[in-house]
User: Fold these one by one.
Assistant:
Number 1:
Amino acid sequence: MANTAGNPPGATSVRVAGAPACTLDLIMDAESVPDAPPSESVTGGDVESPTHGVGDDRSTGEPSTSEPSGPRANRRMRVATVLMVPALLALVGSAVLFLVPVTNPGVQQCGPPAWFLLQAGTNASLVTDEGKPLHGWDDARLRQAQDDRCSAQVADRAVPAGILLVTFWVLALVAVVLGWTGRRALRKHLTVDRQ
């Protein structure tokens, strides 16, 4: 193969052995060949979005500093479960104080404080119809009966029982809200993961 003078630049003249009278000039002009279009790796016109790792910010691709919603939801539900324990204890304590009967020995059976309050109960008199001390008691015993009157005992029970009842409702309400929001966030987190 030899370059023949007079051919254009970039052209190549090829002489075929055994055919002296026939010279095949193959001219390949690099400039006359159009550039091939770049190959496209994307088929169907769809562009795949970059893969993000767990906890990455989908707008920037950088790791997110916020805590995933799954563990946060689980923590809310655990806190709700823990709060229900003191709430139930407060309810039991309130029930005991409200329902265990009280009595003024030798004077009156007061009954449960809750029932006494609902009936607007009154204290029994410490004197007889004749104006004499009940059972002929002396002043010391009468003072003791006065201190143990039903209204005083019911008040001593009702105040802490009411505080415990309010504590129960506050803790129970907080536990219900945390549990509800936690379950809702967990369902949303699982739905996003499945998608």
Number 2:
Amino acid sequence: MSRKFHKTVFQIEVLSEDPYPEGRSLVDIAYDITEGECSGRVHRVSSEELDGRAMANALIEQDSDPEFFGLDQDGNKIDDNEDDGEPDFVTAVINEMEQQGDVFYTNFLMTLMPPQERLSDDDGEETPAGSGGKKAERRQFRGPGC
């Protein structure tokens, strides 16, 4: 079964006393409408289902990357399980920090690592994948004035 993707187009209408400035972010527009001096509403213009190829093309058209949804340039699923023998970036950084003994940053980076890339020792403690099973000791970080 092939993956399904969706493309939805919205139009934002803003009513204001002065010409509305170009380049405002969606957050700024929402603020101007809900808290500021403007009135506005959002219209759903269209919604369509896309296959992988169409989604890859739509992402490229947005100056994004098909890898955002795990696709290659042709819209085919990228094999996440493909092992090129090199550790991913986070694992490589954790390994380097462990070798240098930087426990705080190792623990911090482990929170950024997806759960499937963490290993669990017999006692249930998580260690970074590729760390050789070394556990990072837990330390509480206290900033200045603490």
Number 3:
Amino acid sequence: MAEEPKPEPLRLAAEPRRYDSVDTPSRPGDGTAISVRLIHAKNWSAQQHPPASVGEAVPPAALPPGFAPRSIEAVNPAPGADDAGAITVDQILRQNRAGSGEPALLAPLPARPSRRRQDFLIILAGACVSAAIDTLVFHGNPAVQVMLLVAIGFVTIVLTWFIYGMMDKY
């Protein structure tokens, strides 16, 4: 059996990109460089010679019913400059200031008194009563009584920090 030759491995190489220039570069003095003078000249030219029509208007009959222009009828005629019944900004401001004293529909509720102090005293009293009961049970052991006094101090400090330091008013 004849040995087949190994196929040549594919070697891929990236071709250099070619860019086709769309615009020609402007040279100084040829009049195509963007400058403030050129922008003003084009604006002046556009003001002097407006285009005939920007686009053709579609007649209203050709538009679908949802896109037809609506006719707006004025309910109150526009007031003149010397009209006494005209609404002014000062009048609106005065009405707003006068109306601000009235109770609002959704006025904020007054602040409730906090119950933190009551809860603190109840929990602290419960801890002291439980320590007193433990003292009566373990009355003969002075080490337990010292530990209970330390526990009462620790509970008082932690409870104070937790209720007044961490918690919001409730």
Number 4:
Amino acid sequence: MRAPRLASACALCLALAACGGDDAATDADTSTATTTGGEASTSTASASTSTSTASDAATETAGETEAGSSTGYAPPSAEDYCACMLEACHDLYHATWGENHVLSEMACLASAAESPSAGMPATEGDFIECRAHYCALAAETADMGVCDSALGEGACQ
């Protein structure tokens, strides 16, 4: 009978630990007392969590680019570019990087990481900004004709 109560206490601790707010630290102590054959025993579980928000990270890096300047511009991330390509230029994505999801994602991320940054928005030239621009355009307009540029061809050579 002690095991179910201890499991309940642990479940309560985990639930309390999982319930955190923005920038909040939460400490939860839970005690349970059981009596087994006339003997009393007490167990105490303690959980502590600390959470932070994405705005904390954004505040720390606001205005920094890869070069460390404070222009307020940050190039598109490889993850965002590849997610856009998968959605907006799906067929070309798989034709270029393969059908296996994990391998194609790794190949896309590698390709995006190799693409240089213009340091500002771009609509031509071999830059990640140019590729991301045409991918976003394909997503907005459903024009698959711009997917070649989003892949680094056409306007983004």
